[in-house]
Design brief:
Length: 275
Amino acid sequence: MKPTAFTLHYPYFKKAGELRRVFDSNFADPLKVHSQRFVWDFWHVPNEYSLLRTPANHYFPIRLYERFHRQLVSWGRENLGCHDISPPWLSLYIDGCFQNPHVDIPHGPLAFVYSLTNWEKRKFSGGETFLQSPRVRIPARFNQLLVFDPSVKHGVQKIKGSRDPREGRLVMNGWFVQPRPFWEGALTIRQVEEFFSEGLNPIVAQGLNLGSGFLSMRLEISKTGQVRQIQVLCNTLKKGRSKDLEYLLKSLTQIRFRPKTTSAKLTVPLICQNE
């Protein structure tokens, strides 16, 4: 089971154009003075970071932002097993801005970058998100959601070009947080607790070396209580034994739930810290 360093989703949000128009309108007239021009923090740490940023939830109209927030939270629960997201930053990169290689620990098991950059019409060079393992550069295409393992060294290529905010790299970024189990169908809290205490925990306690990282799985459970299938949603495990992961997945298929009138799905996120 190979680990996943990053994943892309494009196009992601139907109202991306509205988000972008809010930003463009605030900078349409460089001589016009209003409150949204004064919310930006120039975050500069020598040899580490240099960019402009502001809290995204305060910058956009509340209904528009909340629609984006709900979609991203729901997506994280469904696909990752993470209950919430950190309050995202709206980050702006113009000429000279960058992020040098760094890791984000312990902000959350997975990071996200949602792009509002007019990438195809850009007037700058640089601006790609880069990961050092594997070595890859990822363009910030408009309306693209990038999700990646923040324990991998990453950064943003230095921007060279325009200082007009409307011609820069504009993204929302943050972390998926609070991993916890989710389920649908005929399961009770007690059954889920029994799954962990009598099923999963004894398997892991056998001395398995899964490595360090984040693993989320979805179990499909039949009406008879049999685990019919296990889908690995996300795997960022490093320095573990692949045979131990295979053993874990095989052992989970042997667990039996109480029979119910309908089938069920159980999403199980795990944060592993074995060395």
